[in-house]
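Annex B. Sample input.
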Amino acid sequence: MFKLFTVAETLDPVKATGGMIIVPDYTFETAPAAKVVVIPAQSAADDAHPLCPVCDMEVAKATSPSLSYRKRIYCFCMEEHRAMFEAGPAAFLG
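Annex B, continued. Sample output.
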């Protein structure tokens, strides 16, 4: 039987694509020895599928709501996120 646990560099919550928050059970230094290690698939945003700046969800650039801010085009997963960004872009730009 396996005991499932999550591990990260620190115990700080990790924001994953789509806005999901993962709270690690252990750090690299404190984790018990693992019998099986699973590393989720990872992908980077590309020109055709950028990430929504509000929730980090991958979006289809050709069909998503978008707006221009400081000479850059931002694409969003939904109209509500476009409106949230437009109302306060600084909250979503790191």
